[in-house]
Amino acid sequence: MFAVFAPSMPLKNPNAGFLAFADCSQPLAVASGQTGQTQLKERTWISVAKLSALPKVGKVKCTAISQELLAKFPVLKEALKGADGCADGTEVCEVSYGMSSSLMDTSLGISVPDREDYELSVTKAEAEAIAGELGISEPRRAILSYNDSLYVLYLRSAGTQDVSAQMESKFVEPVSFVPVPLEKGRSLNYTLTIKTWATYGGPVEIDLNATASARDSGLDARFEPSRLVIPERSEASTRLVIRAGEDAKDGVYRIRIGGSINHSLILQDSPCKYGSGCPIVKIGASEWGIENYGSDQYIGLGGRQPPEWLKATVETDKDAYSAGEDVKISAHLANEGAQAITLDNDTRLILTIYDDSNKYNENVYTIDSYIFGLKEPIVVEPGSKILLARAFQWDQKTFGFGVAPHDVEQGRYSIGMSFAGYNASVFHTETQFRIGLGSISKVPGAGNGGTDSNSGYNGTMIIIPRGLNGAEASSPPFYEPEEAHVKAGEEIRWKNEDGALHTATSSTPSSEDTGKLFDTDIIPPNRFSHPVVIKDPGEYSYFCQLHPWMSGKIIIVEPRATE
């Protein structure tokens, strides 16, 4: 297609005025072998547009199109008719998705909006024959005269993996944000229709896939057939089948649709854009929506300090797992107060799994649970403990955008829990487990209703307190303790309980030694830094690179002889 350019001198009467600026007495001559210089690739097409403004140069050479020429090249006749339809609005020449290029003819000052450009696939043989007849060489352009109008024709070519298609997809059956009940052992069917316009050099091959938003849902979603081959300006349909297994887990699940075009390009147009427009199914009576994300997405929650009498915890069923074994995870909320509480309508639970050995603490898997259209309030009575959402299973796999699920490496992992559900407060806690052989020493979750952040951990834990949120107006201490006394050689970790990203970087912002002794890199909310060890006694200042006014100090002392 053509990028929008400031139009040249518009015509009051284009049909009468254009031909005065064009010499269409004879077609341009083509030197022997010249058309071969166009170096056509696997996919070829022509772009034709009816000119609505005069070129910025003087008279231009053009080719008068005869009926004999149109009879010889029916595709050319179809393209001219399509260009007329683009100009008068009777033809669809622009859609939301598809290829769009910035090709324009600066030598003539010609540019054509996408909505006026008609594109039609041709075979390589047709393209070479048209190029020879019309005198097209580089820059693969010809000005045509037909029915007292001028047209610009471009011959386009690209590799199979370099082009997408203009297309639109939609479900035949109505799809809404209201979850559709699905019984275990039963199926739902939806018909998906895909319509194409310009496909840039041949039919478009579309491979479709579908998955439930939670990998442990027990739902199987697939297309039958999963591959469609659709010619240009045509349409085809397939069926989306969603089946709930007998062991499907209660919850509300979105169906995600993906795929590829011509075996390589990511499918950009789908009926579910930005997470909406696809079916949503509900298993059982649960009102919890559940979704999983891979290593390319992090979700954090921020809020006020929760009351001490309300405890949020996350547990695994074991401390250590064999490679490939399902990790069973559950989160609970305990009310140790004297009165019943009701959870907020926007209650949300986020469990993030990450590799402790990773320097940057990058997550490998995220479980996101939220209340979806709550009908009955969730009440937690005094002295009671409830399971949040449901029990989860992680199959030890990670994935990302465009990356297929694959096994994680053996090692130590942590699960960070963020829970927002009562009086705008947010709970943060953590637990650890190991994949493979060996035992672990658990690092406790901090900030969970007064939990001692150093309990069970042999090193020094420094807390970045909640409520800073990166605001310069916030008051110290920015790190707790503000001055940490640490034995030489002892491990130090920082726990970020704030809702913003932070670092702990040695020295001061203006020093040449900034970060040379240690730098935790970015610590996301509800995450621990990687360990830091300082062997030499002395006083060491540090600060947050993202918020330079935040500072702290570590005082390293020699261990006593009896230790």
Automatic annotation (TrEMBL):
Gene3D superfamilies: Cupredoxins - blue copper proteins (2.60.40.420)
Chain ranges passing through the membrane: none
Keywords: Copper, Metal-binding
Domain of life: Archaea
Pfam family, one: Copper-bind
InterPro entries tied to this protein: BlueCu_1, Cupredoxin, ET_Amicyanin
Single GO molecular function: copper ion binding
Boundaries of every Blue (type 1) copper domain copy: 479-556
Xref: PANTHER family: BLL1555 PROTEIN
Name of this chain's protein: Blue (type 1) copper domain-containing protein
